[in-house]
Amino acid sequence: MKRLGILGGGESGVGTAILGKQKGYDVFVSDKGKIKEKYIKVLEHFEIDWEEGQHTEANILNADVVMKSPGIPDKVSLVKKLVEAGIPVVSEIEFASKYTDAIIIGITGSNGKTTTTMLADHILRQGGYDVGMAGNIGDSYAKMVAENDFRYYVLEISSFQLDGIVDFRPHIAILTNITPDHLDRYEYKFENYIASKFRIAMNQNENDFFIYDADDKVITKWLKNNPIKSTLIPFSIEKELGTGAYLKNDKIQLTIQNNTITMQTDTLALEGKHNLKNTMAASAAAKLVGIRKETIRQCIENFQGAPHRLEKVLKIHHAQYINDSKATNVNATYYALDSMSTPTVWIVGGVDKGNDYKVLMPLVREKVKAIICLGEDNSKIKDAFGNVVDLLVETYAMTEAVKVAYKIAERGDTVLLSPACASFDLFENYEDRGNQFKEAIKNL
Which positions fall inside the Mur ligase central domain (predicted)? Predict the structure, then answer.
């Protein structure tokens, strides 16, 4: 019996354990931290061996293959020992894909991948397709493969998950954009991170498709120097294209295989330039799998966006509160500030992943009337913007931040939570941060 070792007892680890057990592996799940009660119940139900609070090396180094959760870096000593021993260390995406013949739409990028994934899934569903949405979002992909027989998968895939692929090959790959992010995991070399993102196309052939942002200089330069085999489908809001999606007279023109759809942009459910691009990418993927024009048009008009991503919460005394907790890097916050059309009280801060705030300077000068710092260490934010805004306040809890915002915000203002940082100093994750924001607003 083959042995499957799993590092990490979260959503992807437990999902992989279920699939591994179903496929006849002897499975062992090991988590250095605590495993949540709900996951322990699942492991017990499937009679899967597990441990928490430690990694017993002997029980892992005897595996035939190891699935590593995306949060565990390659440089931890146990992973290095596995590699030295010649034991394959793969991601959930790699492991699960071996057990499905479904058509896969794989979506990666520094920003916009969740929205693009949700929109692509929404269009396929409305088109009557049998589709599962997984990866970095929602349920475990491996668990879905174990329990369903979907014809299509729309997968949101992080660079960490791509680092653990060998044969994974999406029929349609989408790369939304590339900006410096997670550089602490890539030896602070941007090119390592770019190469990681492009792994999504490494096994594609000429029958597959690669949808990408043709306005993104990092992507276009990399493609020029590192050509890929799949058919290129670019999208742009800056230039006209023969194939792909572009803007013309404020309408989206989508041309694929000499077939053109024209879509109004003034009726789009999602606001902001970045969402025009997300819409183009998802629509192109939908067209490639044969969804009808009318369905695509309707779906991009009635789509409800991702929670914690520019989510309108409430208006209080004519000031709009917006939850953009999912903005965990500077680029995501750039998009958020760029789409603000009223004076903004900006709540920012958290665990800084080597952020360079300079790119935000013009937007802050133009749109931000006050900054509320929310984090254990706000020194970089204070250094960057202390002389730019009239008012900068430091806070250390969400309730406090929201109360301060409430005092500052006047009629017609926007209070924007867009942290540009990870959430782990004060919160469990960005969802917890966003939910606390919403809760605090309701309690005002």
Answer: 107-286
